[in-house]
Amino acid sequence: MHQQGKTLYVIKCKAAVAWEPNKPLVIEEIEVAPPQANEVRIKIVATAVCHTDLHHLFECVKKEGFPIVLGHEAAGIVESVGPGVTEFQPGDKVIPLSTPQCGKCRFCKNPKSNQCEEGWTSRNVEVLALPDSRFTCKGKKVLQYLRTSTFSEYTVMDQIALAKIDPDAPLDKVCLLGCGVCTGFGAAVNTAKVEPGSTCAVFGLGAVGLAAVMGCKFAGAKRIFAIDINPKKFEKAKVFGATDCVNPKDYDKPISKVLAEMTNGGVDFSLECIGNVDVMRTALESCVEGWGVSVIVGWTDFADFAARPVQLIAGRTWKGSLVGGFKCKDGVPQLVKAYMDKKVKLDEFITHTMTLDKINDAIGLMKRGECIRTVLKPQ
User: Fold this and answer.
1) 3-state DSSP call for residue 159?
2) Residues 187 and 317 in one domain
3) What pLDDT is attached to residue 131?
4) CA 190 – CA 260 distance, rounded (Å)
5) CA end-to-end distance (rounded Å), the chain
6) Same domain assignment for residues 121 and 232
7) Is 146 helix (H, G, I), strand (E, B) or coil?
8) Which of 40, 83, 141, 341 has the maximal Cβ count within 10 Å?
9) Which helix (H) or strand (E) covers residue 81, if one does?
């Protein structure tokens, strides 16, 4: 395989392989094949641990989903490109995208959606990986999670799932825009369409929830309720714009009623950023009748959710948001610019920095709720 007269070879590198569910990841030497048509091989410079990675590791019990290299929130540098790639060249700084943007399908052409017919939500949603892969380890094929797999020193991706960014952007910061911050911020700005002077409630103060708080403030909300059962998260929520911090455990009544009493009937906008179906209903019930909008942001696919029809008949709207509603190939570079222009925060999300070989420690921190984002770098 050639690139401008240069032969491309298999790269051997370190990666954190999940051989089976509910077990620690193992640092292995893997083989990363050269990029094929319309693909790009990337050197990962920084990657963060997102709760969605843990969701697959601890909740996906399908054997078809393993072995796999997890990771999808990252930034890196283009190492080589395959035939047909014209948008990228070696040396470009890029952010992998778990939601592609082919630019050709009916979803990409519709401004109302950030879905794409090439995305994982349209196929293999239970395993979150395609059967094909550019990874092998010990003679076995290793799947690529969300077609990204950034818990590796190198990965190969389709060019439609890659965003070229400002060459001056610090990769160990903007990597967060690959998922969590983009998701929460966009859920408030793009999906909820938070209005100036409004009241908002954000349920769950992980990275996605804190980004949603930041999005509410960015959109001009006058009162932002940050809700979590871990009061240690409240000071950080205030940094991102929360005006009121509420712990449901402090009350002997449903938190939806508490918020109704604090806001004369409920908030204008609520965002569920946990992935808990009971909290999704609570977030809906926390909205004011008539015009309240509640957005489901937290990812889960293992339980049904429910509400009483009258709760919607009364005028509330219930919506979902995938990656913050951003058409990511367009939106992520814009968010990078907003960070460079000091219009959005990123540094404040990072609580720990480690090397890739400490991946299991990073996962433990997230499982115990002791971090917001841990950024991993190659050794």
Assistant:
1) helix
2) yes
3) 81
4) 25
5) 29
6) no
7) helix
8) 40
9) strand 73-81
